[in-house]
Specification:
The chain has 193 residues and is an all-alpha fold. It has helices at residues 3-32, 35-51, 60-85, 91-107, 116-126, 131-141, 147-154, 158-178, 182-191. The protein has 9 helices and no strands. Helix 4 crosses helix 8. Helices cover 78% and strands 0% of the residues.
Amino acid sequence: MSSEGYVQDFMALETLFKRFYKPLQAYAFRFVNDKDLSEDIVQDVFFELWQRRESIRFEDVVVKSYLFRAVYTHSLNALNKKHQNVCSLDSERETDILDQYVSSYMQNSEQSLLLKELEEEIMSYINTLPPQCHKIFMLSRSYGLKNREIAEQLGISIKAVEKQISKALYGLKEHLVRKDLFPLLILAFMCSR
């Protein structure tokens, strides 16, 4: 590459950096909730863009889309790393976090943009539960009834209620892991404390 081409690419990258750095950093922050980490993510993305400058067209729409997609991917990777390092929790602790988050979500209807996808997946999964399991789960999490109250209302044992709730939570955890959304759940739980 000629020195003139190198300078043009550098100036193009500098223009993109000045234009998109703050929006990208804010976008990353929505996922990772950490100012330093979000800055690192954006810098890494721009470094990768520089390394791949010969294979990427510097047209505004194409590069903008690339940058936001790259920041999204890097943010999820950072959450996965955080989940593996910080949250190498035993299965019971993960279920407790899931249980507490679902309870607070079901009783609080305010939705943040960041967690919209997570909340949609939770509701989507809950709606696939068998009728009895769905009813027990909703009475527990949406209406805040105690297991004893649910057992009395449905004419079943407290053990049966506990079993259905555990089954729903375990299935929900597996569903979120398959969808790569469990790190967002951990983040949401940590941010809500």
